[in-house]
């Protein structure tokens, strides 16, 4: 069974929805307007002999996890769960039966009692909580029980959460990605600080060590986090003297990440590319540019961008600091970003729908699109 999922982020790009609009409200409005097959956030086509499916909608509801004893900090990453009722309403409008599963514990119990055998499809929106493979945990369970599900498989989910390994795969397939090194913390337990010598030793293991140690600024981010956790102005490294301080700060603020990714800072334009489909059938549904505001006017000014992705991915209200602008493919840099994103999507074996974030680097004299991140689920 081949599933094609059209997701909120990409329909907002294609139809011009503003970034500041609430996901739940969008779904409510579209349902009321009856624009189910064109403007709705989700459209499922199933190649089956019958038209109605029994779909398990697996999501992460904050209150369900809090009732299980999880902390507010643990639950802060859950963004999609609040819209589950509206997603379910869309699926029901399309004629499907929906089973709501608000947490992984409920999923495990239902699978153990054999309920999974009654599902035609699982609609997975989960991110997971613990471990470097957390985004692959629900897909792995579904694979074990041979239940078809939406979005990428467990292997791809786990790969793309680990930014270092993702970049290694991209490099292998000659997909442009910024020069990088990985600083692992698995040997530093019990230490208050990771020394500069230890950090430099790990940087020198990278094939890009000469570039990283001689061409500043650099940019550091948690190795395996999403939603811009751990990202701020201090992540921009302007000299070797600040390298140790930034790495240790990230180690403290993002302990679950187990490492830090250090990259060459890219000063060019930033795009986010929405993609639907799988393999050769994948296609770009839309591309937006993150345009930063300077002196009251909206323009792309690399000098005002002290850090990448925090404002553009973690908040809805940019308070006049930036806009997300729909860009046409007639823009040469946007077109290059789309082609690079689609290539990355294919080599990472992403499935159904997601987005790829691209940053341009014009320091070499001509723009080069570098993959920053791949989000391969119902992400924002």
Automatic annotation (TrEMBL):
InterPro entries: ATP-grasp, ATP_grasp_subdomain_1, Dala_Dala_lig_C, PreATP-grasp_dom_sf
Record-level GO BP terms: cell wall organization
Domain ATP-grasp: 167-377
Pfam families: Dala_Dala_lig_C (PF07478)
Record keywords, A-Z: ATP-binding, Cell wall biogenesis/degradation, Ligase, Nucleotide-binding
This protein's record includes keyword Transmembrane helix: no
GO molecular function, one term: D-alanine-D-alanine ligase activity
SUPFAM superfamilies membership: Glutathione synthetase ATP-binding domain-like, PreATP-grasp domain
Domain of life: Eukaryota
Membrane-spanning segments: none
Family: Belongs to the D-alanine--D-alanine ligase family.
Record protein name field: D-alanine--D-alanine ligase
Organism: Aspergillus kawachii
């Amino acid at each position: 069974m081949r599933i094609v999922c059209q997701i909120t982020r990409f329909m907002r790009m294609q139809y011009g929805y503003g970034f500041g609009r609430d996901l739940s409200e969008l779904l409510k409005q579209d349902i009321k307007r009856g624009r189910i097959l064109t403007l709705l956030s989700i459209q499922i086509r199933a190649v089956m002999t019958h038209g109605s499916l029994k779909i398990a909608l697996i999501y992460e509801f904050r209150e369900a996890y809090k009732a299980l004893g999880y902390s507010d900090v643990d639950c802060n990453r859950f963004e999609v769960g609040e819209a589950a009722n509206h997603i379910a309403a869309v699926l029901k409008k399309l004629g499907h039966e929906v089973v709501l599963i608000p947490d992984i514990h409920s999923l495990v119990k239902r699978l153990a009692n054999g309920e999974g055998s009654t599902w035609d499809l699982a609609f997975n929106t989960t991110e997971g909580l613990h471990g470097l493979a957390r985004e692959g945990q629900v897909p792995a369970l579904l694979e074990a029980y041979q239940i078809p599900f939406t979005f990428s498989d467990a292997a791809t989910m786990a790969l793309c959460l680990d930014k270092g390994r993702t970049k290694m795969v991209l490099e292998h397939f000659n997909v442009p990605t910024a020069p990088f090194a990985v600083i692992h913390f698995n040997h530093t337990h019990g230490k208050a600080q990771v020394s500069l010598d230890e950090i430099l030793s790990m940087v020198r293991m990278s094939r890009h060590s000469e570039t990283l140690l001689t061409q500043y600024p650099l940019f550091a981010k948690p190795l395996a986090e999403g939603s811009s956790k751990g990202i701020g102005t201090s992540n921009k490294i302007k000299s070797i003297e600040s390298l140790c301080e930034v790495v240790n700060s990230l180690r403290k603020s993002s302990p679950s990440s187990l490492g830090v990714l250090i990259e060459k800072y890219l000063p060019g334009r930033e795009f986010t590319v929405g993609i639907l489909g799988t393999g050769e059938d994948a296609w770009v549904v839309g591309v937006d540019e993150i345009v930063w505001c300077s002196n009251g006017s909206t323009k792309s000014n690399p000098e005002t961008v002290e850090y990448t992705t925090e404002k553009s991915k973690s908040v809805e209200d940019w308070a006049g600091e930036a806009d997300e602008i729909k860009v046409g493919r007639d823009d040469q840099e946007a077109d290059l970003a789309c082609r690079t994103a689609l290539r990355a999507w294919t080599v990472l074996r992403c499935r159904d729908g997601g987005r790829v974030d691209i940053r341009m680097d014009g320091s070499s004299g001509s723009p080069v699109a570098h993959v920053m991140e791949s989000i391969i689920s119902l992400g924002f």
